[in-house]
Predict the 3D structure of the following.
Amino acid sequence: MKKRCRWCEVNDWMIAYHDKEWGVPVHNDRKLFEFMLLDAFQAGLSWSTILNKRQNFKKAFDNFDPKKIARYDKRKVARLLKDAGIVRNRRKIEATVENARAFLKVKQEFGTFDKFIWQFVGGRPRQNRFRTMRQIPPNTEQSDAMSKELKKRGFKFVGSTICYAFMQAAGMVNDHVVSCFRYPHIRKLGT
């Protein structure tokens, strides 16, 4: 039996996410935007809830296309508020539209969002060596800096804890515990 990080042993969605995605370095702008969107919706909820609705989010939010989302109007927001397949929170939906607009501005300034966001870890994943889940912090200096800069640029629902969850999802940090079967593979991806 494979040894995994204990947080994922909730259901099959979580195990699949852990085994295939979590901690893998992401450099695709649309995928980075997807994780940003999903992590913002996670605020106050479990990641399991968000993963369970991931395909619904993908459909509701035009395949996570920031250009399309940036053009959403009040009628589209009203339709999303009626969509039982996603988290129906007005503030989070409106923040997603604002975040798409801010995302596009950053992309225009830096050429890619990837170039901007990876600067917070010096362009390479941070390789942590945690032995237990308790050792993993909820935020770091890097997530604090990321949060501050994103807020300055108009992003919403980007507190330091959400930013750190994003960093974990996007592979900017390797927070698999060292005994996890994924740890050495993810470590190799970051070199």
